[in-house]
Queue: 4 jobs
Job 1
Amino acid sequence: MAQWVPDVLGDEFEQCTLPLGEDDQGEAVATLVRALPEAAQPVSGWERFVRRLRGRPTTDAPPLLDGVDVLYVHGWSDYFFQKRLARFWSSRGARFYALDLRKYGRSIRDGHTPGYVADLRTYDEDIAAALDVMAEDADTSRGPRRLLLMGHSTGGLVLSLWANRHPDVADAVILNSPWLEFQLAPLRAAIAPVVELQARLRPLDAAPQIDLGFYARAQAEVADADDLMEPNPAWRPTPAMVVHAGWLHAILDGHRMVGDGLAIPVPVCVLLSARSVLPTRWSEELTSADTVLVVDDIARRSLKLGASVTVERVDGALHDIFLSRKQARDDAYARLERWVTGWVRSRPAP
């Protein structure tokens, strides 16, 4: 039985620790966070009267995403802290969960190399443990529930590969700027063998740190003063966490598999910024573009995920679409709701 305790994000959230055994760095755990939606308000007598006048149903209709579970996975050098995103899903009737993968965020333990794995399939254990707890937490009295996967950046790569290996589990996949291709794509063929050799001989060797902190600054510049997202700098550091050879080899191997073509059998929605900017020096344009990925490359690579892929390009968006300036963020949420509404209405309830 999962032991839920209060989460660092406050009263709206709880967390539970998912034991994953031990590796050569000690105890391995993942952490599952769940949103606690407010109880739905009953329809008042006055509201029923107004609905009757307008020819609308006078009883409480089930919310759009009733019976849907959302599992969110964060990106590199990151963890879950996006309260607004959780509220979007909860307010529409979904049960929202977020997973801090092993050695990230809430799951970091003494002796860990933050973010390090040598094979992205290792995360199958984290995801399986999360789904077990979500199933234990579910009310299935009205039938089975639908699973919607949502991943950002590296989390988008992890979930894409997972959904391809587990074709009968998820019902839809939503990707927020997924890292599906290396930023230096033309050089990947030359880089990959060097990284592979280094990963075999010295997997914990570190690559040069090239993060100048501009992405974090751009997020701070566009943040809403009345609804700040305040990440823990120990869990989401600037500059970003150190990149190690073994981890980079795992990422390049994942990119190769996507490039060879996946066969995700369910609908996929990919949200991307409309443009990329190379962050060599600070400028205002970094507050309205993806400074991490080459979004045109990602858009093309997205079409290799499966047979039903929608690509949404959001003007003015940052790398994390949902941490962009309000105008771009509102556009992204509107596109997301439109896609989800179409998905729900096109697929009969189980």
Job 2
Amino acid sequence: MEINFMRPSTVWVGKRCYRVLNTITSDNAITNYTENDAYGFEDSVYQDEVECASEMPEYEVERLDNGKYQTSVPVASGFFSYIIGTKGATKKRIENDTYTQLRVPSKGQTGDIVIVGRDIKTVRQARIKVELLVEQARRKMPFTHFLSMPINSSSVQERFLEFKREVLEKFGNERGIDESLFQDPAKLHLTLCVMVLADDRERRQAIDVLNSCTENVLRKHLSEENLKVQMKGVEYMNDDPNEVDVLYGQVHALSWGLSLQTIVDSLVDQFVNAGVVIRQHERVKLHVTLMNTLFRQEKEGITENRGKERESFAAKQILEEFKDYIFGEVEIKEIHLSLRHTTANNGFYSASAKIPIGASCST
């Protein structure tokens, strides 16, 4: 794999961004997380060189009666194995490299990981190592929840079903196109961001952030104005119209006084700043998924990729035929913290929480 040392990848932990350099030194690579000076650990697969892109973060560290220092790191129990490593190897490396002690709850238990060290700096260094390991593990997990705006009015659903019927009639013989690709009309939605919420504590945190968006985002950008949008035209995610995995409907705010992009970006910023969401893009891509090759796998009983290649489809003619197709107008009334792979009584995804939009958010 070619490595671009001038534009290294980044890892976000809460509000902090770390630059990552993958430096191959042998059959394995080396992992160092550095701020003012170098410190690191090696895992069995690879090592990265990580340079902190901000100053040393401020953590709550308390001094114990014995003169040592301690900090507690909230970590979901599902991530404990990543911190411990095979036969405790990763935990030992962190402890040896930072001269600290990590106290991880026993198997089957929940709670914080407690770090104890001889001074504040080493305790903080160990904590950064733990948090980066958790974020690396989180990136490998399938997302559990997503922030959504339902775009599923009865009129839009009818137009979507008409779109589906026409696509299958006109282009059903094109490579990869079949009925399994299409979204459930009751689940049409604008996706703002996805997240991995690994335990009840993380879910409660996400719910708290969503509730805070009423005051911090909606009243600021919308006041009591309603949010009306139109879905018109289709687009695709990748670069080749004959090798498409996702085809989506384009969404636009109908009021010139509102910036839908600003609203959704501000909503996602709330979750990123709270450390609930890993930032992946500078701006939210406004899209309502209409066709997705993952739907085909899910309908075949494959809920995750599991190494199976997705079968793309040829969408060039669909894009030409429906470039100006009007799916309809919708007044978005709620923002949902939606649970993946679920269905509520109304046919939409089940919600862990939801908040109203527009005039209803002031009641």
Job 3
Amino acid sequence: MTAVEAPSSAPDVLAHSRDLVRPALREAVERLHPWVAEMAAYSFGWCEVGGAPAAAPGGKGVRQALAVLGARAAGADGRAGVPAAVAVELVHAFSLLHDDIMDGDVTRRRRPAVWKAYGTGPAVLAGDALFALAVETLATAPQGAGAVRLLSSALADLVRGQADDLLFATRPCTGPERVTPGEYRAMAEGKTGALLGCAAALGAVLGGADEATAGALDRAGRHLGVAFQLVDDVLGIWGDPAVTGKPAGGDLRARKKTYPVLAALGSPAACGLAELLDTPGRAEEAAALIESAGGRTATLTEAGRHTAAARALLARTPLATGAAADLFRLLDFLADREL
């Protein structure tokens, strides 16, 4: 296979990858039991409850783009990374279905979450089916055994990150048992970064990359995942609801221990923040105090550090030129989105 010409911007990179992957992703979903396939299609924004076509927007397709770019970075055509892209999209959808149930989130992408639309049991079943389909997709691809091992390792990290995230909710904001920023970064690397790193590495493996190149892409993707989560944390407090689809200060009302909160709590300027977080109806005051105590700045600085680490890894790894340029474009676009 020969490398294709690089798209000219990050949105172009995302759109090109979605166009490349969508037919294979739909074909995979259609192999499921019809009811389960409908729930999966609903989760991707392709249909409404009952199966009628939907105009609901799906996600950006970051993971599938990383898989396609991973293959191109190895010098192959992006199509070599399509099985990896399909697998990671299926795993991501599986994780979101289960996350929404665990977190009690009733909406996803501006409409009812799958468990609210179809019921908890059916949503769990759909998530399990998507996971099984992801493994099947990789197992039948070239280099399938190694690809499945890579995916399994990422899933183990994702589960550890999710477990830590759930446990954080049971820990206090202050005192020796409090959640530290370092613990949060480790959680974010597992919950968010592991699958991003896996996507890029899987694409590279299917594109014929050696172990060192795949490993570098995996580590870069993990750094990107941490930066992505930190920017999400900022948007979860100060983001424009018209853009994010979530109410301003929603993370504070949910009492989530996000990075801006944890960073602010470590500052003497945040005196009284713990009490504000525990008091309903004071999210705006809490947001102002977090910002004045440096929580927002610290979070964006940390996100920038991880973005720089990802760039450094990519810069010293021998990658196909066009793919490397697109990886840099995508990295900067995701780190700077809507801030």
Job 4
Amino acid sequence: MLTACEELGVTLIAILPLAEGVLTGKYRVGGNSHPSNLRNIAKVTQLDIFKDGDPSPLMQRLFTKPYMLQREKLEPLFELIDEIAKGHDATISQVALNWLIASNPLVIPIPGEKNAKQAAANAATLSWKLTKEEFERISQTERSIWRSLQN
């Protein structure tokens, strides 16, 4: 989708840029379990909607979220983001949003908030920027983890 937006010069509005709370660090290994909506999405991928004895590949492509099932593989990314966050007196969420904003000028993240404190924290993301080195370290780690999730 981003490629099409780039070709058309259209801005992409990124809803759920914190991956339904996963990129807040809230669901790290040893922390909270995933929210029930993620568990329900995982169940949907197992449905045999065409009654052919095999879960639907379409449903799997639409709903599978590898981080749900393999969150321990995300831990190196959280460790790096946490280290960078401490250097900026920021939160994991702020670093994740900052990285997304820096990744492409055509992407506008719209994170959700449950209260004024979260809204203020999300807005504070714009008060600083990742260094080029920090951005590259996060990008490299993210690509490495994505490849491991594909296996």
